[in-house]
Amino acid sequence: MGPNNAEDMVYDSNLPLLRICNGDRAKLIEDMCRAQRHTLSAEERQKSHEWAERLRFLDISVYLNVSGPQLKEGESKLDRNSEVSESSEGSSSERRCRSEGGDSRNDSSQGDGTGSEPNTVRTLPLTRRGDHKSESYVAVSYCWNSESRQQAGRTYHTQLVNSRREAKVKRNVLERAIGFASSHARKLLWIDQESIDQDDWSADKKVGIQSIDLVYERSHLPVAFLDVRLGTRETSSLDRLLSGNIFSGIVGRAKLRGSVSSALVKRILNVLQRILSDKWWSRTWTYQEDHCCRIRRMKLLIAYDGSSNGRFEFDFGPTKGELEVPIQVFRARVTHLKLACIKAGYTEDLSDLAKAREYRELNHTMGMSGLHKHSSMTSFVYADVDERENHLTGDRLAILANCCGFSERLDADKLADNGQGLSVCIPALFFLNGEIFHNAIAGTEKLGLTASELVQSIAFSTFEPPGKKCQTSFVNHCRFTNVELRPEGVLAAGWL
């Protein structure tokens, strides 16, 4: 979401707690108790919810030609719209955007398929807050600093209430977003660089950061843009994985079919390595945007040069020049593949596959193996966030809270002003929100761990939820209420 004007929190979560508290366990506990004084008030949290109810969108309806003739198969509605010349839209001094129009292997333009001309301008209106409360919208997840190759193309402007400015988001991101939304007959785009006032930290960004989870949860069509581009052979390998025909057995005990060759498995692993090496998988913000989508309805958009119509068993969607992959399916298949490869004795390095692990599949596998124990997703989330990067250290507290559905929030700005580092705040946030834990921190043996490792090691991992449905959801709601941190331990109301 870009930098703020406040002093950032100290990033020390890569250090063992022993160094943070100088070997003094009592000091660590005292610091956590002091951190709870800087929680966000109920009024501040309410402001964040109200912010999420009154979003601003880029309105692309003028380019959709909704009332026009029916589209041909695979054609974008955007292909039928005329361009506006730069000379008629504004002064010659207006700067032209550069784009990320492909990668080093392909110089062709990517996005809406219009064959962009350099001397054109498109203006996209930015709606006022609250104008479209209940309408369906596309929420876009992407990396601000894309590594895709830059090339010239049309310029985009954003029309505000009383002014117009050059769009802040890159042209390639806009064109891919417009092409995707057009293929799915959606007219509203939520893109953080445009929909959030990046110059207003206190009134927009600081409030919104606590409710980004709601933006993606409420989107009917969230989409993630990867920079990687696949060819036909690579897509064929991906198709074999996603269609599931390389597996046999039931979920939780899936294994590779006997007819599946090791050569095919290695080709699939190579494709996954390319996909998972994309920067999108290494950022905490994009991780949050995926994780917070309701029922993981987000789609990955992967650039593809050919036509997928009728060529593959898996349905890669209608967007021209793109492969649409539901991320829930992708994560489940990747998790199945990793477990099946381990079972089959493959010696290849499978560590990268953890970036796309599916928590419910892992918990289900534990149950099928006879353990019948479950962990809450909190420990998984802490581990995944810990392995990813973002610009501002303090943002990680909001990201963790959003991903875990925490009601108690810590004010990163106030904590930073008081000299608190991230290592103290990470476990404090865990305890304040009533997470159940193994009471194994009485001694100093845990102080050799980092803050995130501490949380993962003490998080209660032997839940036995009733029934067979919604077990993970049940476990995620098993928390203490009205928690207070004290030097003696965690004080909570209720029965145990």
What is the strand and helix layout of this fold?
Elements lengths: L16 H4 L4 H11 L6 H12 L4 E2 L24 E2 H4 L8 E5 L17 E6 L12 E4 L7 E4 L2 E5 L4 E3 L4 H13 L4 E3 L1 H4 L5 H8 L3 H7 L4 E8 L1 H12 L3 E2 L6 E2 L5 H15 L7 H8 L7 E6 L17 E5 H18 L14 H10 L8 H10 L8 H10 L7 H6 L4 H11 L18 H8 L12 H6 L4 E6 L2 E5 L3
Parallel strand pairs: 4-7, 5-9, 5-10, 10-13
Antiparallel strand pairs: 1-9, 2-4, 3-6, 7-8, 11-12, 13-14, 15-16
Helix pairs in contact: 2-17, 8-11, 9-10, 11-15, 14-15, 14-18, 17-18
Give a quick summary of the entry:
With 496 residues, this protein is an alpha/beta fold.
Keyword list:
496 residues; alpha/beta; six-stranded mixed beta sheet; 16 strands
Give me the Rg, rounded.
24 Å
Count of DSSP E strands?
A: 16
Q: What's the helical proportion of residues?
A: 25-40%
- Structure classification: alpha/beta
Termini, distance in Å?
A: 41 Å
Largest sheet: 6 strands, mixed
What shape does the CA trace take? globular
Walk across the major sheet and give the strand order.
Answer: 1-9-5-10-13-14
Number of alpha- plus pi-helical segments: 19
Proportion of beta-strand residues: 5-15%
| Assembly form of the protein | single chain
**Poorly predicted residue ranges:** 66-116, 366-372
Summed over residues and divided by their number, the pLDDT gives a mean of 82
